[in-house]
Amino acid sequence: EGQLVESGGGLVKPGGSLRLSCAASGFTFSNAWMSWVRQAPGKGLEWVGRIKSKTDGGTTDYAAPVKGRFTISRDDSKNTLYLQMNSLKTEDTAVYYCTKLRGYAFDMWGQGTMVTVSS
Amino acid sequence: EIVLTQSPGTLSLSPGERATLSCRASQSVSSSFLAWYQQRPGQAPRLLIYGASSRATGIPDRFSGSGSGTDFTLTISRLEPEDFAVYYCQQYGSSLYTFGQGTKLEIK
Questions:
Q1: Which residues of A touch B92 (CB under 8 A)?
Q2: Is the CB of A97 less than 8 angstroms away from the CB of B46?
Q3: Alpha carbon of B29 to those of A55, B2, B70, B72: distances in Å?
Q4: CB pairs under 8 A between A and B
Q5: C-alpha distance from residue A10 to each of A5, A20, A83, A116 (Å)
């Protein structure tokens, strides 16, 4: 049974930066397409972005609200996924989930890490 | 961007009853690209259905998905106490993923 464990959340001021990490285990991470999904307090789910496996090109795609500010990367040697978040806004406050894609569905989720953007 | 609209917003039913949740897309979605998730309070979401009608690993057969084009349905045949949660549909298209706003299934 695979597992995803996020870390790196916390309180940051508007305009600041934060990097989230996601440690993967129990599956072949290097073959997996990975994604970040967030959930603002009391709200629904919002896709943030996705990175393909290096075999499939390693390219990234992002949702419009974060494009140009957030960057997803991966270190297959460490089985770790990253989310670099710059120019943070108050509306980026959310629980951030690391997810694994199976086809076009998110079949594995981490427990989430809270990011609060506030002055 | 394809918008998914779920209805109803809240569904109040009793254990043992049948639940029918709807997900309508603003334009046609390939059945291969439609999934459903369950989120219990304080927990991460869990994949229930992928490809519109295929159950994910370990999902009980009381959960079923159907539909095509712009209209999709999640059916729970006989509600168990642990089924009262929020349900989301999700689609993929043009390198983007979108979720519906969710349906809260509450105990009547």
A1: 104
A2: no
A3: 27, 8, 6, 10
A4: 60
A5: 15, 10, 14, 6
Residue B8: asked if its preceding bond is cis (omega within 30°), the reply is yes
Taking the C-alpha atoms of residue B74 and residue B78, their distance in angstroms, rounded to an integer, is 13
Of the candidates A64, A104, A112, the beta carbon closest to that of B44 is on: A112
- Residue type for B107, please? I
Per-residue pLDDT of chain B (108 residues; tens, 9 = 90+): 899 999 999 999 999 999 999 999 999 999 999 999 999 999 999 999 999 999 999 999 999 999 999 999 999 999 999 999 999 999 998 889 999 999 999 999
Are the C-beta atoms of residues A6 and A22 closer than 8 Å to each other?
yes
Candidates A64, A105, A112; nearest CB to B50? A105
Query: Which of A22, A45, A46, A60 has the most B C-beta neighbours within 10 Å, making it the best mutation to test the interface with B?
Result: A45
CB atoms within 10 A of CB A73: 13
Q: What is the DSSP string of A20-61?
A: EEEEEESS-GGG-EEEEEEE-TTS-EEEEEEE--GGGT--EE
Q: Is the dihedral of CA A69, B44, B60, B87 positive or negative?
A: negative
Cβ separation B44–A35 shorter than 8 A: no
- Residue-level pLDDT at B94: 85
Q: Which two tokens stand for residue A109?
A: 């989720």
